[in-house]
From TrEMBL:
This is SAM-dependent methyltransferase. The chain crosses the membrane at residues 12-34, 40-59. CDD domains: AdoMet_MTases (cd02440). GO terms for molecular function: S-adenosylmethionine-dependent methyltransferase activity. Residues 83-191 form the Methyltransferase type domain. InterPro entries: Methyltransf_11 (IPR013216), SAM-dependent_MTases_sf (IPR029063).
Amino acid sequence: MRRGKYGFDAPLPFAGLVVGALVLLALTIVSFAYDVAPAGVAFLLGGLYTLASAFSYAYTTRRGKFEIWARELDDLDGGERVLDLGCGRGAVLMAAARRLSKGYATGLDLWRTKDQSGNRAAATLANAEAEGVADRIELVTGDMRALPFVGDSFDAVVSSLAIHNIGTAEGRAEAVREAYRVLAPGGRLLIADFQRTEEYEAVLRGLGASDVRRRDLGWRFWYGGPWFATRMVEAYKR
């Protein structure tokens, strides 16, 4: 059972879905009240569709992503050094730390609240205390494009819905290159995102990474529907 408070991913788009659904349903009532049935039906269908998208978004951010990442991290044997890029309030960071009996997990972020509600280092540390893993994590404030770590420092590097926030293709490519640089030989890289994953895959192939693949993570990781499906880019360092 999770004991931490992990906020809401990108709260503004979710709020937009909820408000949009309410407006459409209100227009449905008005349309039927004035006997404009075709418009009422259209507004009703649009409202239900938008409401379903909001429920999908809420499920993913509050439950679905935790289930998916738990499955992805089950291969950890307990002694690894794990880096979480764009860790936010620590959903993935804590999941990794719970699986580490001898290793440690490092979370790096710029702590921007537009990417996640209440995103600040103090909230992440509080979650680590609540989850009982404070002795196995450390937090670093930094930019994914210029990681403050020497090469080959981590046995696993993970990132969840973070790299797409970098505004340029070159910036995103640099973040992927940095993730690969600090990954130790034989280490595993996992990048989950709902945008730009084909870019990440191409960069890793260009770097000579092994076993590079991009796969769909299924409906539990939809942010509103299949058009915002999250995909995982997985690779290993030779």
